[in-house]
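Field log, afternoon session.

UNIT: design team B
ACTIVITY: writing a sequence onto a fixed backbone
BACKBONE:
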């Protein structure tokens, strides 16, 4: 009998396995594809590896203004893909080693939750065989899959790829149409735009990247290389590589492309592990969980993308820790005090340049009826920013505070290092820091993050 069986070996599943192994629990991890899940194999890691190669290419091509001359700068997509594969393989073997280190048993196959009265088990289907494994607790971390909206002509069209397909193309498309201006769509637009594709983004909403500050998003759109935007546009059909859509004035338009990326969001994986048969509550968003990641069935938890609450790898990590704490308490007959909070989850877009944010945007705070004060400053206030990017580069920081309490509600960053800077801002929000406290903090000089201090001093 296992203490815990985990279904899914992505960030949520493997981190939970490590933590449980560390606490001496007998753990089985069932994974049907590769350890590391979406994030490591076809998500966060491969996209950032390719974006970094694109950044090297851009810097080599544009180094002249910094006094560095490189001749005949070129890139080789096959070599970039090989490097990406090397990074993925090395991280995947790192996860395998961690499982060994924490004495986690790993089984390759499809896991299905079995609920019979008070008994809990996981059925594993592998190579035509079926095994049943009894357990005291189950953590479902089955993640998510790309959503394929029912657009006529999208399915079984060799020119229409999802993010996984676009990560292994053999040539840079001359023209790329990206359906969906969310984080994934914009990262691919930035990658292929930098590598020379002519990119058209078609987005149904009026602005790209929903969590982004509405003053910063237009700035990012303006500077993404070789990328045009069709906002407020609804795709009606696809024929070959041509995407037809209705624009915001109701006019029919189209974009012809060599490849189309379908980046219209991700769907929580609620079909592969027997949720319905086990009686687990599932909505269109994902598995219903409480703040400790418990499902409606005692002894079964669900963490990460599968519950649809915050589809980010770092959210999956934290949800896994919350679930582990509750599972360990449950095994001893109690429940944990640790709960999941979503108000300080940072997000980042690793486009060139980057954007990141945490907490409320100005628009969200106003919609919630909160009286706010705001301060926005350009990154040109930073000496390091100018030294590394020049005086024409875009970038700014916007800070939102509660007008009454002066507690920081949101920090939004557009510019290089945004993804690295945002952790500090998340800590400020998590700790409900007031601006008077931030004013006493010391920022390293010269650094780009000093701009956060400048924004705070404006209040
Ligand atoms: C292109 C792209 C870029 C991304 N970039 C970022 C980023 O930069 N930062 C970020 O935070 N997030 C990013 N994400 C999102 C991130 O990948 C996910 O939020 C994260 O992987 C969720 O982790 P998870 O453990 O919940 O699920 P997953 O990583 O999806 O892992 C779930 C695992 O469960 C397995 N599984 C499913 N069903 C079963 C079953 N029945 N039996 C056995 N195994 C099963 C799957 O094979 C999979 O390996 C990106 C996603 C994509 C697609």
């Amino acid at each position: 009998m296992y203490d815990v069986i985990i279904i899914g070996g992505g960030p949520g599943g493997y981190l939970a396995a490590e933590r449980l192994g560390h606490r001496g629990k007998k753990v089985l991890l069932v994974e049907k594809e590769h350890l590391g899940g979406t994030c490591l194999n076809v998500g966060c890691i491969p996209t950032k590896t390719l974006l970094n190669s694109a950044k090297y290419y851009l810097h080599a091509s544009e180094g002249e203004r910094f006094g560095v001359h490189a001749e005949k700068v070129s890139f080789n997509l096959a070599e970039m893909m090989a490097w990406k594969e090397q990074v993925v393989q090395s991280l995947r073997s790192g996860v395998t080693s961690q499982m060994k280190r924490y004495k986690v048993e790993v089984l390759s196959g499809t896991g299905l939750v079995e609920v019979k009265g008070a008994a809990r088990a996981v059925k594993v289907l592998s190579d035509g065989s079926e095994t049943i494994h009894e357990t005291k607790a189950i953590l479902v971390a089955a993640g998510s899959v790309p959503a394929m909206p029912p657009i006529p002509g999208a399915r079984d069209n060799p020119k229409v790829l999802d993010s996984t397909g676009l990560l292994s193309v053999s040539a840079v498309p001359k023209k790329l149409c990206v359906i969906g201006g969310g984080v994934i769509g914009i990262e691919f637009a930035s990658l292929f735009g930098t590598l020379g594709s002519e990119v058209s983004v078609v987005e149904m909403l009026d602005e790209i990247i929903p969590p982004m500050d509405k003053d910063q998003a237009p700035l990012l759109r303006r500077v993404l290389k070789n990328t045009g935007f069709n906002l407020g546009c609804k795709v009606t059909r696809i024929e070959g590589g041509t995407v037809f859509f209705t624009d915001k004035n109701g006019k029919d338009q189209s974009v012809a492309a060599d490849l189309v990326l379908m980046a219209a969001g991700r769907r929580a994986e609620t079909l592969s592990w027997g949720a319905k048969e086990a009686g687990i509550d599932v909505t269109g968003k994902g598995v219903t969980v409480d703040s400790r990641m418990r499902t409606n069935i005692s002894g079964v938890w669900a963490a990460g993308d599968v519950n649809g609450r915050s589809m980010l790898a770092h959210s999956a990590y934290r949800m896994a820790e919350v679930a582990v704490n509750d599972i360990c308490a449950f095994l001893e007959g109690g429940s944990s005090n640790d709960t999941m909070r979503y108000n300080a989850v940072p997000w980042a877009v690793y486009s060139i340049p980057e954007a990141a944010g945490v907490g409320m945007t100005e628009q969200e705070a106003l919609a919630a009826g909160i009286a706010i004060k705001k301060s926005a400053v350009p990154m040109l206030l930073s000496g390091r920013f100018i030294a590394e990017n020049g005086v024409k580069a875009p970038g700014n920081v916007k800070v939102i505070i509660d007008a009454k309490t002066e507690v920081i509600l949101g920090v939004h960053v557009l510019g290089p290092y945004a993804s690295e800077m945002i952790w500090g801002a998340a800590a400020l929000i998590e700790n409900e820091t007031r601006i008077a406290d931030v004013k006493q903090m010391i920022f390293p000089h010269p650094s780009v993050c000093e701009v956060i201090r400048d924004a705070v001093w404006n209040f």
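LOG NOTE: The chain is about 30% helix and 25% strand.
NEXT ACTIVITY: expression trials, pending approval
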